[in-house]
Design brief:
Elements: E1 3-9, E2 13-22, E3 25-35, H1 41-53, E4 63-68, E5 73-80, H2 88-97, E6 107-113, E7 123-131, H3 132-146, E8 152-155, E9 175-181, E10 186-192, E11 195-202, H4 213-229, E12 237-241, H5 250-258, E13 262-264, H6 277-281, H7 287-295, H8 316-321, H9 323-351
Parallel strand pairs: 1-4, 4-8, 9-12, 12-13
Antiparallel strand pairs: 1-2, 2-3, 5-7, 6-7, 9-10, 10-11
Helix pairs in contact: 1-3, 4-5
Length: 352
């Protein structure tokens, strides 16, 4: 049964979530967090959160995932001619190089081809670009703590796209926004028909509330206006998650300022019998960590910056651990082949 670990590294705290794949369903095994203190820094907070999340796990995890802050990446929307689809990576590199403020030779990027068809049959694309050094620094932190490199490195709010298959409210046909409220910054993701199409990082978080509430609402309105300027629609509903999702009065204030319904993110459809009712009430705080773990399950939309020089390669140790499983599968295939071939071999003499 594969087990995945998602690590959400924030400025004030680190959150970790363990997901296990069971027969025909996914189980939320454990949630844990640790505050970032000046004495230990981020590395010590990651070590504490991971140790708490992995308590009682004898086999370890099969893979882990982490994300860089949205402020460390550049998000771009592009329209490319349909004829460019066969050479999309090369053409995207050329287009992005003219738009980013740093040399693309020292950067990695990932992209998503949106389902919505652009004008004149053009291909609408959303791309994320980050410096190699920023992505590698995040990889090294996780490797130092866990001894295992992260298989995926997500980008800011796009990480939350992995929640869509597990939160039915996010897969509706309307335009929906998810706001991850952090202590010093917030991240906004806009979904259209369940597809992530727009992301932005705000420099306003829960620190300074309630005096900074108006600025937070203004930044959200500006973000939604920017999405509309790109041809999108105004969100009809906003869901809150992250550490600031439960700030007293946040839902009512933002609902009045944005003039749209605002509520806490619904629980994902996962088996959570081992988590407990108290942790279940805290699920929106761990939305990003859960989504990172779920991204390893292969469903949902997201970005992965483990590209180019940072491409993830599984070592021989990973294969060696799965030799019993591979041997069992080979035996099943061999037996199936024998049972399939035996009647045919017996039929040949009879026909002769």
């Amino acid at each position: 049964m594969p087990t995945w670990l998602g690590i959400d590294i924030g400025s004030a705290s680190v959150k970790a979530a363990v997901i296990r794949s069971t027969y025909r369903k996914l189980a939320l095994v454990r949630l844990a967090s640790a505050e970032v203190v000046a004495s230990g820094g981020v590395v010590e907070a990651v070590r504490t959160a991971v140790a708490r999340a992995m308590e009682g796990e004898r086999q370890g995890v099969d893979a882990n995932a982490v994300a860089i802050d949205g402020s460390r990446a550049a998000i771009h929307r592009l329209l490319l001619p349909a004829t460019a689809q066969k050479q999309l990576a090369d053409i995207l590199a050329y287009e992005l190089e003219a738009q980013i403020p740093f040399d693309l030779a020292g950067a990695v990027f990932d992209w998503r081809l949106l389902e919505r068809v652009g004008e004149d049959g053009q291909l609408p694309i959303v791309a994320a670009v980050a410096r190699v050094e920023d992505v590698r620094a995040r990889i090294e932190v996780v490797k130092l703590v866990t001894g295992q490199e992260p298989e995926r490195v997500g980008v800011g709010a796009f990480t939350l796209g992995a929640l869509v298959p597990y939160v039915p409210a996010l897969a509706e046909g309307e335009t929906i926004a998810v706001v991850d409220l952090g202590a010093k910054a917030s991240e906004v993701l806009v979904l259209e028909r369940g597809e992530p199409v727009f992301a932005r990082t705000l420099s306003t978080g829960t620190e300074g509330l309630p005096s900074t509430a108006e600025r937070l609402a203004r930044d959200l309105r500006v973000s939604f206006a920017a999405h509309r300027a790109q041809g999108g629609a105004m969100p009809v509903r906003v869901y809150l998650c992250g550490g600031g999702a439960f700030v007293s009065g946040a839902e009512g204030f933002l609902s009045g300022s944005l003039e749209v319904p605002v509520q806490v993110l619904p629980e994902p459809v996962l088996d959570s019998t081992t988590v407990g009712p108290e942790a279940m009430r805290e699920l929106p705080r761990y939305a990003k960590a859960i989504s990172l773990a779920l991204s390893l399950a292969g469903r949902g939309a997201g970005m992965n910056l483990r590209r180019g020089p940072l491409s993830f390669e599984r070592g021989f140790a990973w294969v060696r651990e799965r030799i019993p499983l591979l041997a069992g599968l080979a035996a099943v295939i061999l037996v199936s082949f024998v049972f399939s071939a035996w009647p045919r071999l017996n039929a040949v003499p009879k026909e002769r």
